[in-house]
Each structure stands twice: as C-alpha cells, then as structure tokens.
Amino acid sequence: MKHKSILILDFGSQYNQLIARRIREMGVYAELLPYDIPLEEILAHSPRGIILSGGPSSINEENACILSQNLFKQGIPVLGICYGMQLIAHVFKGEVSRGRQAEYGPVDFIVDDPQSPLLKGLPEKSNVWMSHFDEVNHVPGNFNVIGHTAVCSAALANEHDKIYAVQFHPEVAHTTYGGEILQNFIFAICHCEKNWKIGDFSQTAIEQIRTKVGNKKVVLGLSGGVDSSVAAVLIHRAIGEKLSCIFVDTGLLRKDEAQKVMDTYGKHFHMDIHMIDASKRFLSALAGISDPETKRKIIGKEFVEIFNEEAVKIKGVEFLAQGTIYPDVIESISVKGPSSTIKSHHNVGGLPEKMSLQLIEPLRDLFKDEVRKLGMSLGIPKEMVYRHPFPGPGLAVRILGEITQEKLNILQQADQIFIYELQAHELYDQLGQAFVVLLPVKSVGVMGDERTYAYTAVLRSVDTSDFMTARWSYLPYEFLEKVSSRILNEVEGINRLTYDISPKPPATIEWE
Ligand code: XMP
After folding, report:
1. Is the peptide bond preceding residue 476 cis, with omega within 30 degrees of 0?
2. pTM of structure
3. CATH no., domain 198-385
4. For the chain, which residues make up each domain, given as ranges?
5. Protein residue with least CA distance to atom 9, ligand 1
6. pLDDT tens digits, residue range 18-47?
7. What's the gap in Å between 391 CA and the centre of ligand 1?
C-alpha cells in the first residue's frame, strides 16, 4: 500500500514527525526514513518528492550526516529544511559556517523571488520559525536566493533541477505560511495527488491482515487505550473469532474501566476477550513499595507473566498483534538526533518470547490522529476514541507512596468526579490530559464539629498536543469550585484539594 508519496529523510530534528503529519493532513502519504538508507531503497518507494529534515548537528562536524550527490541526479524534486538546506549547500559546493548571530524563534522572512513556485502566494514579508547557528554564507553556483531574513539567506532554489531549501521550519505552526510552502512543494512542484484517506487505508489493511493470517489465530493484549482498541477492532473486522484478546484488570485502572472495556469490545463488538482479574495479585506484589521505578518494574513483570500464562492457554496461536503506531516506530529508528531521546518508552508489557509468535502491527504507519479517525470509521464510540492517554502502570503512578486498596478506592472516586464534570462542562475534549493524583500526605481539616485527618489530592490538567511539553489548563474558577466541592464532600478520605500549576518542563505531566 505504498502510494506515490513524499519521503522525508530523517536527520534527527525533533520536528521531523510534524513534517510527515502536515503532509498527510494535506491528503498525501509521507513517510520518514533514516537519512542513510541506500539510494536503491529510496528509489524503490518511487517517491514524488524528497524532503531533507532538520537535525541537531553541524555540517562542518567531523561525523556530520552527509548525502551523496547521486540523490539529486534522479529527477526527483528535493526540499531541504534547516540542516537539510545546509546539507544541500554543502553538497553543491557552497559554504556553510557559524553565523554572526544565531536565530531562534519567530523571525521576519522577506520573499525575494515571488515567481518561485515554492513561495507562490506568500506576502512579501511574513513570520517564520527559526532554530539555527550555522548558515549558508556562500550560495552554490546553480542556486538563487529566493528569500532572506535580516541575518541570512533563508530560502534557495535551483529551479532547473527542482532543488529547494529553506533555513526555517515550514512544518511548525509558528511559520505563518508554512502550510502554503509545503503545499507548493508537494502539489505544484512534485505533482502529488491527494490520495491518502483513512477509509482506503482500513480496506487495504483488512485485506492484508486476512492474507497474512490465513486460518491461523491471533492474540492481542487489549488495554482499553486507543491504540490497542483500534488495532483489535480492525483485526476483528478482518478475521472475526480468530482473534482472541487478553485484557488484564490490574486493579489499577480507572473506576469501572474493566466493565466499560468488556461492554464495548465484548458485548458490543462481540470480540473474544479473556479478562483476567489480577487486582489482588498486583496489590500484593506492590505491597510496601513506594519507589516509582520499582513499582513500574513490578507491574511490568507481573503483566508479562499474566499475559503469557493466559496466551499459552489459547491453542493454535501463531500471531501476536500490537497497537504500535508510527511515532513508536520512528522513535525506534530515529538517527543520532535528539528526537529519539526526548521521550522515553513507557509501555508496560513485552513480547511473550517463548511463544515465538509473528507480529502483526496494523497501525504502524499511522499517527495518533489518524488512529483516532480510523477508530471512528470502525464505529468505536467517540468517548473511547477521544479519551485522554492513560499510563500503562495506571493509577500506581498517580498514588504517590505505597499503594493500598483504600487509596485506590479514594483516587478512583475522585478521578471519576473530575472527569465526569469535565465532560459535563464540555471541557474534556479541549484538554490534553486531566486526572487526579493522591499524595501520601495527611492534614488536619474540619467537618461539622469534628476534626478530620485525611489525604491531600491534586487536580492535574494540561494543554498539550505532543505531551513533550505542556501548559497547565486555565480551567474556570467556577468549574474548579464545583469539582472541589464535590470531591471534598463525596469522597471520604480526602479533605484537601489543590490544583497543579506547573508546566512541563520543568515538571512532568504525571507525578509518579
Ligand atoms: P510525563 O509524566 O513523562 O508523561 O510528562 C508524558 C505522557 O506519557 C504518559 N505516560 C505513560 N504512557 N505508559 C504509557 O503508555 C507509561 O508507563 C506512561 N507513563 C507516562 C503520561 O500519562 C503522559 O501522557
């Protein structure tokens, strides 16, 4: 299912996934590949155009990431972005050096050649997003400067060979006309067609799954989260009862979550789900443990053990399905750049190695928003598809200190009230993530004529799209008052509630 598409060669910029997402949003399939894959492999994709991404290194470093000139001799249009521009300048014998002045953030960009197809439709002056030290200070012979900033030549073109370069990042929202520049490149210069639609994807994926599985059996670990659920429903659509799902109720889930998962996927979609109530097992394994990393390790180990115990009971299984999505894939292949190290991998679980199963990962080409669209097109209820992320180790990372059944009950009730009120006030869908944290701190309060000594809880709500950075949400005071009054009145065990106003960084979203 390789549409003629745009290939992005990845030099490690943290924005590289954004380039692919923006282009896909325009209806054109875009894929990221490590910059150093062989030319034959690039050509095997028959790309309509190639984008060279940004990257953290300097072209003048000893081990800089370099491309051979051959790539530029294939008649395929190329657009270099940031490091990609410096690389083009270097390959074509221009000169790149440390600039007089670094440019970070928003900068004025002046168009010098409004006739260039890359800059068509741009005003003479607009805002672009910069992030560079080095700059092209000697433009190679066959290139013209088609735009500049006060500091550097910011856009180059070799119209004859269709090689273009920009020093700024058209993929980030702060570049006002970034979308136009990418559109100009993919449609006017590369002549791509709009043929990337999630509906077509699901038809093709279903056929591929059927062919691959034949009459064998598939096992999948269902967590109730978006990725594993969409993968499950898609595979179920393809092979019906040959799919068995294993759902481990760790007891660390949201209130009533296990029932919701069984109702949605078991009753409504008629999937074969083996639910294991392992709450007691997790609780006893976690008894007395306060250290967050130890909690995570224990949970991961128990989870894999339980999954394996259950999976071997299902006879004739040859495939293991997983809801791996494109950002997971990119993170595991990304080159030297910082993008691979900013976000660490969190997921609980692991392959049942002894079973030597073949993998099926039907979502591995999709971004999260595409997975959500696919989920909706498969008829999964909106509240399951558009739910906030929930960490694999569940409420264990939201109960600080030792985990007990009492604390779990308290947190589940408080969290349910917060989420219910967010939905009732139509705030939930505007937020990146919202939840309650229970602290291992008790303080004095008063209720009626009596003194209380009870836990402190924290409301956490953040606005974010990438979860790498986040801002605390400006929730209305009246709303906070309502939630506070409900939690403090209805949840026995909490007598003090606070609202976390820390951005990430320096804080993280979860408390651990
Ligand atoms: P932090 O706390 O690092 O979290 O700012 C970033 C995002 O990752 C989620 N998270 C997890 N997701 N398994 C997951 O699937 C995990 O172990 C895990 N830990 C954190 C967190 O909820 C937030 O969305």
Report:
1. no
2. 0.83
3. 3.40.50.620
4. 6-189, 198-385, 404-499
5. 391
6. 899 899 999 999 999 999 999 999 999 999
7. 5
